């Protein structure tokens, strides 16, 4: 009896073992026949998957007999599906993947200064590529507000009802805590941050990289909430010549042009645009929802390729703009200076960007960078003029070494910021000069196949405020080819200036200067954790889910206080601001359809002594929904819907929740395309359900702007590729 039972068990075990098979695959480039490292193989309908080694080899074990479907994919290559029967006729299978038509350079991340792909960087980075930039450019070709506002966790906050000036809020924190970079240069810091979002057209951008949470190791203070790096296009051997013409039902006109080409030893890019709008008021308030604007932009950039090891580029950015909002009758020439309210903004920007890169070896090199930035802005309202000029510079020397397992970046930098005011009254000047000397080291290390670490330290010496030490760490966990996770955190700081969202609302009138004896640095710490899951459902539906949790705390926040003498003072209150919450992103793909769903929960509070109140102008609940239908090189159709919950306002009241919806269509031919966009076709406007000011029309006191003012606007135009 025992022998019979043993025989049965032996037969069952033998059959079970015989039913288990292994698939060994070598993935190669179809053209070069080179092995593909880091490519993935997934068994459809299961959680089985693996990643290729440096020889392009990967093995999947525990496969049962029968027919199975496998998905082979690698960044920059077309996905391939094969159906295989087991037992297999061959022990090792060689699979060739075809490279896509897109240039692999389009997905290189520059913000972390690493050679790793976005999937292998421990720091969580959100990437907006060229195709998505083009789609957002159809909706708002004149600036980047809409492009950023439609990302989860980001809210572009309008801080002036009449000039439409806006700032970026990441995860509920004020705009001054977000650092905006252009090609890694801080060209929008301090005074020059004003009007920055409104004066950056997207046509000459190659990509946008967003890091949420403290990012101070490489770029210094100011990135408490995160950073946004605007990466410009570079010339390619194939000439690129593009034009965009756009008109709106609100009286806007955009004319943009871009040229880029690389020759043997030199390359050149030139971006030029003219953007204008007529004063527009869809409500009965009599104030402009869109100010009268005329802006000219010219950005030439020269690239020199001395030899394969040494390259240089030098660029100039220029912007000239006149912007007038307020009483629409006055702007149309039917009012006067005494009985009309208006806000005039005359501004100009001039900045240079210089970068020299020399490679000692294929994996190591030295980079020298410098930028000089000049920003002038004059604000004129009845009985008051604010006139200021900022000169700032950024210089850096950095060494990098990129190996198979470890990447190193180390450098020193100097940032100078000098502001001069030219007052037209007897109020004291708010001039200041700030110099910051910094040094940094960052290491990205692949410890095992499932763990990669990125650690960094930075030391900054800020004149008048002392030394700041900024450590940071991030970890990437590869649980499986379908599941990855990131955990990171670090410290940050912000140098005090008079330029905040609160002071911008009052055009800096009666704001007392910052004093190093009375004020101090705002210091922060933050942490975030996310998990990402990718799979294929029913063999033809792609699914990607990303869940992020975040927490940031800022000690001694800089707030405005009204004194008994009628002046406004910026003080570091005894307390802190903390914001916590989560972001959920879901992406579904089926054939030519793509669905994006994003939800953000933000719980932001200000604690001052024993007092506690919600951080104003932060939607606790926000929902993003985008449905895209695209036939490659023929049609693009998009439907959007966004929800904002109630927001606490600075006057103690609460704003109302609202939805906005939009629809975009583009018909594409080989050399040109036609597009039309129905923005906010539900005509959601704050003036429909709430007021935007108190007081009189001639002396208004504007309330917080938390919802759109322009309502339903149609725009459309023509894009040409030559």
From TrEMBL:
SUPFAM superfamilies: Carboxypeptidase regulatory domain-like (SSF49464), Porins (SSF56935). The keyword Ion transport does not apply. Residues 119-226 form the TonB-dependent receptor plug domain. Keywords: Cell outer membrane, Membrane, Receptor, Signal, TonB box, Transmembrane, Transmembrane beta strand, Transport. Pfam families: CarbopepD_reg_2, Plug, TonB_dep_Rec_b-barrel. It is found in: Cell outer membrane. Residues 303-680 form the TonB-dependent receptor-like beta-barrel domain. It is a multi-pass membrane protein. Residues 1-19 form the signal peptide. Belongs to the TonB-dependent receptor family. This is TonB-dependent receptor domain-containing protein.
